[in-house]
Amino acid sequence: MYTYIIKRLFMLFPTLFGAAILIFILLRLVPGDVCQLKFGGEGSYADPQQILDCQNRLGLTDPIYIQFLDYVAGFATFDFGVSMWTSQPVVHEIAIRFELSLQIAVMATLVSIIIALPLGILAAAKQNTWIDYTVRGFSIAGIAMPSFWLGILIILGLLIGSQAWFGRPWMPPITFISFFQDPLHNLSQLIWPALATGYRYSAVATRMTRSAMLDVLHEDYVRTARSKGLLEKVIINKHALKNAMLPVITIIGIEFAFLMGGLVVTEQVFNLNGLGKLFVSAVTQSDYTLTQALVMLVVAIFVFMNFLVDLMYAWLDPRIRYS
Amino acid sequence: MYSRLTKALGAATFGSALALSAAATPTLAQTPEYGGELRLVVGSDIPSYDAHIESTFGMIHPIRPFYSLLIRVNPDNPSSPTDFVCDLCVGDVPEPTNGGKTYTFKIREGVKFHDGTPLTSADIKATFDKLAFPPEGIASNRKAYFKMVESIEAPDPTTVVFNLSFPSGTFIPSVAMPFNFVYSKKDLDEHGYTWHQTNVNGSGPFKFVEHIQGSHVKGEKNPDYYHEGKPYLDGYMSIIAPKMSVRLQAIRGGQADIEFRGFPPKARDDLVSALGDDITVQESDWNCVLLVTPNHKVKPFDDPRVRRALSLALDRWGGSEYLSKIAIVKTAGGIGFPGHPISSTPEYLENNIAGYGRDLEANRAEARRLLKEAGHENLKFTLHNRGVDQPYKVVGTWAIDQWKQIGLDVEQWVQPSSPFYATLRKQKNFDVSLDFNCQAVVNPIADISKFLPSGGANYSDFEDAELESLYVDLLKAEGKDEQRELFAKYEKRVLDDLASQFITLWWYKINPYRSYVKGWKIAPSHYLNQSLENIWIDAAERKRQLGG
After folding, report:
1. Inter-CA distances, A213 with A124, A216, B483, Å
2. B548 contacts in A (CB within 8 Å)?
3. Could you report the per-residue pLDDT of B459-472, keeping only the tens digit for each?
4. What are the structural domains, with CATH classification, of chain A?
5. Separation of alpha carbons A291 and A289, rounded Å
6. What are phi and psi of B54, to 5 degrees?
7. Is the pTM of this model over 0.90?
8. Interface predicted TM-score (ipTM) of this complex, two decimals
9. Nearest Cβ partner of A268 from B243, B422, B426?
């Protein structure tokens, strides 16, 4: 097991290096740079010398291989540099948004698990009944409906509903306060995006739970358990569920990683100052250092979550050993 | 030749104020109240706090209230392009002496920076030295505006003297620009010229409290502010919200009070429809214009007949009527800010400039004739555009429809801002592009350097000696009549003879906001009148609207 963990940890490096090369090249294929935007972004006169000075200062006029070596050396020494747009350290830019993104990811995951597991199990246990059809309809709607669109509907619903019932339109707060400072403000802002993303997330997990449960419920050992006269509840909870969880955990792990950096549009809809919104800003402002760091962070989160999922497999299924 | 003169020269010394439209009278005579926090939403993030190098409203709106200016647009009359008043100086804005080459400002006594350092003429001199003569390697986005400044002196703590190398009517408007934050000499000396990019120490009506990147900026009242009785607010919070729908719903849903840049007409209508009298609306012509820039180096746009045909096809009067219902554009005008005394009147444009005639069919028949004569009846080309809805994509789509009416086949090539600028300024691999000219202080003669081939901001890539010569004459012209006459000649050369670039429509600024916000007056630019010192909150009205 330990050998496996060490092997997986070593595999991190080529994965990260590959991602680093890819993002470095892709960013520089897009024309334009941060200096052009900073000094002439509002359509005013942009002094070419000033733009050149800015490009020199940021190293944008250095040969590409020098830029790449700087970039790799920075990562190797955990020096991620400063944002080209704000001149603030990249670590600071990410750190102030990490809490919000992590909280949303955790809350959406909880919403998803709370919805997906019971519904998925229920649908499998009551296969081809009206309960199954209802659950399937509910989950297909969740997959079909983008979470940002659901977010817009939630905001409009809150505005219209609050005006109709209380006489004043209300929408969730648009500035973040930590849960530990003001839990009410915090939850009244984040519960809505967590519901919007959690629903879509749960839809995928519900379908996976149902499908995995159906597979397991048709296994020989389940039939044996039934023939022994065990209660259906016991069969599902004690014998089937744990085995059906393997693919569900994979889905939950990948979705969690996705939520950490991929809530690009939903964060815009709810004006959440998270990593997704930062991603959009960094890309639109041609902020190479920040975009590169964010991509590497998301890659690292994905790799780490996959690693955790693999470890969970071993815990759930004793037959799986990685030695 | 004149690229370095872009904003440095020009003369706009006209005294008459513009009559700007206002959809609703914003304030009745009420006694201002003290207290409360203003929550404003801003659609752009802050690159840095240093206004000397930035050009975005995303910095001006949250940061301007921390700083003072030497002179400024009159906050009680911001719609006037010529009404400048002292901020850190005392008395009236000085008249020049020495044949127009010397301006002497008397500086207020008793003003302190927020760190307690007294403000003197040395700080003004250090600030304008940084703006006009930045040391090598230090950026100043306003350097070109002060090309006429030869030297700056501070003979005593309350006197600053600007010596110009030649008389220039653009000097005072340039000094009044909202980007000229006055910095402490002590900060510049002790911390260097880049310190203000990440630190704030001004002498404005509000003191810096915090900035959470990507989220908000907070300011609190400066109790030592030198304009007596101001500011009225206890503080403000500038919330960063890039999506327009969020800013709009935040005002509707009680999470924000005001947005200063402007909303499209539909957003205004939605707000008014939802909240009725709880919303106040101010509207104004906007010193931003959307123009068409053909690439003269690409055939057939090197042919003036083709360019002229493109301009003739645009129904500006109809566009004004229809587009103003869905986009932040409205006024059909020439190259000068509509309504300014030296700008052309609609009647003049109608009778003298291609594409402004009221007979649309005649315009389009002439366009078809020109295209046929040039051998490009079925011309196919690409319109390069910026990936921003308001107003770029809306106007771009409209223009394509207009060109289709004369048989042209036009595709739209939309790019995000960064590659858009790279294409326009560096790569120049476009056929025809939408471009824009957005300025802070209205200063038409300086502003129209956008159309000058050597102006530094003209991306149509051509040369024209006559236009250059006309601009020089215009700069030297002294009387209003002479300026107006030369301005019209310059305009005709740009829009009619050469059709080197042409105007679509001028932007139109619409600011709907919560009606308990009082004291703010709209200006013809989203950069102006943003110190927030005149704004106050009607607490009872706020309570009625929001509760709590």
Report:
1. 6, 5, 84
2. none
3. 999 999 999 999 98
4. 90-322 (1.10.3720.10)
5. 6
6. -95, 165
7. no
8. 0.84
9. B243
Spatial distance between the Cα atoms of A101 and A308, rounded to a whole number of angstroms: 19
* Cβ pair A169:B438 closer than 8 A: no
Radius of gyration in angstroms for the set of CA atoms belonging to chain A, rounded to a whole number = 24
Distances (CA, A) of A105 to A130, B94, B215: 32, 60, 19
Question: Three-state SS for B444?
Answer: helix
- In degrees, rounded to 5, the angle at the alpha carbon of residue B472 between the alpha carbons of residues B471 and B477 is 95
Radius of gyration of chain B (CA): 24
> Model confidence over A55-113: pLDDT tens digits?
888 888 899 899 999 888 888 888 888 999 888 899 999 999 999 999 999 999 999 99
Strands (E), B69-165: 71-73, 84-86, 102-106, 149-156, 159-164
* B25 in A contact zone (CB under 8 Å): no
Looking at residue B361, the DSSP 8-state letter turns out to be H
CB contact under 8 A, B547 and A34: no
Domain B68-203, CATH number (from 3.90.76.10, 3.40.50.150, 3.30.420.10, 2.60.120.200): 3.90.76.10
In contact, B164 and B102? CB cutoff 8 Å: yes
Q: Residue ranges of the domains in chain B?
A: 68-203, 285-507
In contact, B343 and B334? CB cutoff 8 Å: yes
- Any A CB within 8 A of B197 CB: yes
- Distance (Å) from the alpha carbon of B20 to chain A's nearest alpha carbon: 23
Q: Coil, strand or helix: which one is A106?
A: helix
